[in-house]
């Protein structure tokens, strides 16, 4: 892709890994871009579940039996979260229509404990995906990522991790429908 055809990225955009990407951190991944500016980019992989539950990694949330995802290969000792619906937490950053990133952790813990916050509206991540200034631009020029803008909706987090990559491409239509059906290993086809 030439640099003049690169879309202006913003929070809420989805980065879909091209089907030939062999980097095990990002194979068939869908990354939700949470921040993109001159200092770099920050995103969370939406479809890479870990083997851990929230109760296993956070003493404060030991009563919560919720799956945790791998947000990316950077700082996997940090916890991040997104949620859908209306704004529930102070300091949350809106990244799409009714999609929020982060927020006051103590409020979250108390809301979950009291039952005032529905855990099913949240997705938790260990680590994140990060890019230095212009690094993501270079990866887009190399066609590492397919950008899907304005795609966040109430279904985004409802797809299973195995189907999300394919569903986003199918919903984009056109030539992306062909990519959606591309086998993980074409030699086995």
From TrEMBL:
Matches recorded under InterPro entries: AlgH-like
Pfam families linked: DUF179 (PF02622)
Matches recorded under SUPFAM superfamilies: VC0467-like
Top-rank taxon: Bacteria
Full protein name: Putative transcriptional regulator
